[in-house]
Specification:
- The chain has a single domain (about 5-315), classed as TIM Barrel (Alpha-Beta Barrel), CATH 3.20.20.
- The protein contains 11 helices and 10 strands.
- It has helices at about 35-50, 65-75, 105-120, 140-150, 165-175, 200-205, 235-240, 250-265, 270-280, 295-300, 310-315, and strands at about 5, 10-15, 15-20, 55, 85-90, 125-130, 155-160, 185, 210, 285-290.
- Strand 4, helix 2 and strand 5 (about 85-90) form a beta-alpha-beta unit.
- Helix 3 (about 105-120) packs parallel to helix 4 (about 140-150), helix 4 (about 140-150) crosses helix 5 (about 165-175) and helix 8 (about 250-265) crosses helix 9.
Length: about 325
């Protein structure tokens, strides 16, 4: 798998990023649909064998379990810690106390230390603000993150799913205090959700910020795996955070076109959906989530799918503005 530069930063990442939200303790909130550690091993192995060395997790995934499993997998599959680019996130609720969430300096510092312990590593390559939760002043957020950079606990900073003006303001504050600004934006982006094209993508491209999209195949919708009779998959039944994202008439028309192009090319619909995201010059490395080895295999195979301009136009034509989603 080819590697790409992460925006204007000097670090290289694999063209696809392994999303580790699917790994945890089945039945545990907030992601009861996940697979256990034993089942995760096959996916970690496939990722490593195919050169996918950019891994993404978060403290809230599996209430900490994903970070623990990911940390053990890094030691199992990489000879050196430096061989993997490890990303994790903070801000979401991690306990019952009033300071166990949000972006106060207290929570940012404590959350980072807790992630380092679960991951069993001395540093995090890319540390994301998961969401703008709480009322902490932007200056406090930027100051706390700068402290982590100066301490060497974090090498690069990123942010995820916020308004473009918020992201721009945070980066200007970072520059003003002499800190290193966010180098990556992890946002919600796929063929059935393209609202990020209005401002965020242009801003990132102009500033040289890497775009690392989450849900590039619409939580499986664009893979064509949602039952056509209206029934729900097991994940859809239990994924409380993202129920109801897709399923409009417009969404199904886009899916129909994805399936048509896939048929013409002799590939799977998911490969077309990934290939479309990868065709965008502002995208660095889409995040690939999987619970089965064939799902990860389809994502990797999408790197060999090249869409023609006419096919891209055909896929994009039905899209009309939809309600903003993914920020909370």
């Amino acid at each position: 798998m080819k590697s790409v530069q992460l925006g204007k930063s000097g670090v290289s990442v694999s063209r696809l990023c392994l999303g580790c939200m699917s790994f945890g303790v089945p039945g545990r909130e907030p992601h009861p649909w996940v697979i256990d550690e034993a089942a995760s091993q096959a996916l970690f192995r496939i990722a490593v064998e195919n050169g996918m060395f950019f891994w993404d997790t978060a403290d809230m995934y599996g209430a900490g379990a994903s970070e623990e499993i990911t940390g053990r997998a890094i030691r199992e599959y990489f000879g050196r810690r430096s061989d993997v680019v490890l990303a994790t996130k903070m801000a979401n609720k991690m306990g019952d106390g009033p300071n166990d969430l949000g972006l106060s300096k207290k929570h940012i510092v404590e959350a980072c230390d807790a992630s380092l312990k679960r991951l069993q590593t001395d540093y995090i390559d890319l540390y994301y603000v998961h969401r703008l939760i709480g009322n902490s002043p932007f200056e406090e957020i930027c100051g706390a993150l700068d402290q982590l950079l100066r301490q060497g606990k974090v090498l690069y900073l990123g942010a995820s799913s916020m308004w473009a003006w918020q992201f721009a303001k945070l980066r200007e504050i970072q520059k003003a205090i002499g800190s290193e600004p966010f180098v990556a934006m992890q946002n919600f982006y796929n063929l059935v959700y393209r609202e990020e094209e209005r401002e965020m993508m242009s801003y990132c491209q102009s500033e040289g910020v890497a775009v690392v999209p989450w849900s590039p195949i619409g939580r499986g919708f664009l893979a064509g795996n949602r039952p056509k009779d209206g029934a729900a998959t097991e994940r859809a039944k239990t994924d409380k955070m993202h129920q109801g994202y897709f399923g409009s008439k417009q969404d199904y028309e886009i899916l129909r076109r994805v399936e048509k192009v896939a048929g013409d090319l002799g590939v799977k619909p998911a490969q077309v959906a990934y290939a479309w995201v990868l065709s965008k010059p502002f995208v660095s490395a889409p995040i690939v989530g999987a619970t089965k080895s064939w799902q990860l295999g389809e994502a990797i195979a999408s790197l060999d799918v090249e869409l023609k301009p006419a096919q891209i136009k055909y896929l994009e034509a039905p899209y009309k503005p939809v309600q903003v989603a993914g920020h909370q």
